[in-house]
Amino acid sequence: MDIRVEKAMAETYPCELLLLFSFEPPLPLEGVLASLDQEWKGWISGILKEGDFKGERFECKLFHTQGLFPARRILLTGLGKKEEFSLERWREASSKAGQFIRDSGLKRFAFHITKLENYSEEVLAEAFIIGLRLGTYQFKELKTQELEKIKEIEEGILLGRNDEEVLAIQKGCHLGEIISKAVYMARDLVNRPSSQVTPTFLAEKAREIAQTYGMEIEVLDMSQAEALGMGAFVGVARGSQEPCKFIILEYNKGKGFETIALVGKGITFDSGGISLKPSEGMEKMKGDMSGAAAVLGTLQAASELQLPLHLVGLIPATENLPSGRALKPGDVLKTLSGQTVEVISTDAEGRLILSDALTYSLRYQPRAIIDLATLTGAIVIALGDYVIGLFGNDETLLQRVEKASQQSGEKVWRMPLWEEYFDYIKSDVADFKNVGTRAAGAIIGAIFLSKFVGKTPWVHLDIAGPAFIEKEKPLLPKGGSGAGVRLLIQMLRNWSYS
Ligand code: BES
Ligand code: ZN
Ligand code: ZN
């Protein structure tokens, strides 16, 4: 779908479909609807008086203008009650409208963005694009049949009345496109099978991003990781025939900018290893590199936005498979930090590979470390698939994430990191073990990670719930969601301009 911005009036713009939004109830008319109604001699209020459209949240109704007006059809989309309005509601309604247009088989639409409540055209345009793009995402590259049934919108035209509006809409559009593109990339990486998205593939993708967007990249292989002392990462990687990669992607706007480390879990397939997972649902474990995908997406967007920051993306990438050389329960690993870990379950591999990546991040003396990982099933039990579990050791940093969450619409919920739980991972033979109790599983996973960041401000985002969607949501079609990308980009944008 191409999006372009034009200076024109909705009232007189000839198009296949004119998209319109309305609160519940739609009468009395406001904004674009009111001026359109005036120009169209009461035609819209006429329809509305019939009661066919109520303005309910996500309601979509198509009306033909029968050649009476330049727009051949109008689509009314409900925003719900005015007092409940938020940017997230707007994104979701934009997504629903996009899906409706696509599924109706229409190829082109026009839409006039004007200020709504307290939001500017620029902010609304950005959110509209994000809603539209995220809602109409389809992963179809592996389909060979019934391709003709896959519908797609070809063109969206955003209208602004004057130069000022056009400029604001263009700006918002540009931002929205950069963010959507980053989310699409992350989704594609998650949706592709693990036979394609291997650690080598992730490294190649990172190289491609580095080249396209002007970043530094270094990729360590197994022998280099081993020589450095990444015993935990290498321990997990040894079970697989696929070469592991430790990816270091660095974006630097220049000297003197604050350093932030972004660490993403890059398990390209998690079978559980010797502590094998049940086979039911195991196919979803191709998505166990969602943290890595989010880090790549975030860095790509940050670079496109030219944020005044120094970002270090760290991705330990490997498969977690059982084999004659695989990690076994009872093995003890020496991590890069020097601390030793007894492996109780080889299925708690995320925290093992992340421990070395977190330690490695300290080399850069970052102002903050943010890790993203599909770390535990327990967080899915606790919070479901709408919410990211948020843990951390620094109140200011936690608040930055929470603020970005409110702005971006990616929900986070704060979880505790009480030291009492550390007792649960004390080991008889090593410094600690990689599993505690089933109860409080997500907290214990986070407590484990906290042992590798020292006093550096750190947050851990357990994205196991929202990373892979089974029941679709307005902005999230089934499958890989790109969880964390919008949240992190928003946080980094705030960071840049504060
Ligand atoms: N990748 C899984 C966590 C996961 C579960 C992600 C469901 C997405 C959906 C992780 O490596 C894992 O297996 N964790 C174990 C930890 C346990 C052995 C302490 C878990 O959650 O069961
Ligand atoms: Zn696992
Ligand atoms: Zn895993």
How are the SSEs ordered, and which strands pair?
Elements: E1 2-7, E2 18-24, H1 31-39, H2 43-49, E3 60-64, E4 73-81, H3 87-103, E5 108-112, H4 121-135, E6 155-160, H5 163-191, H6 199-213, E7 216-220, H7 222-228, H8 231-237, E8 245-252, E9 259-264, E10 266-270, H9 290-304, E11 310-320, E12 332-334, E13 340-342, H10 350-361, E14 368-373, H11 377-383, E15 387-392, H12 395-408, E16 411-414, E17 432-433, H13 441-450, E18 458-462, E19 468-469, E20 479-480, H14 485-496
Bound molecules: ligand BES and zinc ion (2 copies).
End-to-end C-alpha gap: 34 Å
Number of DSSP-assigned strands:
20
Low-confidence stretches: none
Number of structural domains: 2
| Class by SSE composition | alpha/beta
Strand content: 15-25%
The CATH superfamily of the largest domain turns out to be: Zn peptidases
Quick one: CATH class of the largest domain? Alpha Beta
Tell me about the biggest sheet? 9 strands, mixed
Summarize, please.
The chain has 498 residues and is α/β, with parallel strands linked by helices. It is built from 14 helices and 20 strands.
Please provide a written account of the structure.
35% of the residues lie in helices and 21% in strands. The chain is an alpha/beta fold and 498 residues long. It has 2 domains: 2-177, Leucine Aminopeptidase, subunit E, domain 1 (3-Layer(aba) Sandwich), CATH 3.40.220.10; 192-496, Aminopeptidase, CATH 3.40.630. The model has no long low-confidence stretch (mean pLDDT 97). Ligand BES binds at residues 270, 288, 345, 347-350, 374, 376-378, 380, 435, 441, 464.
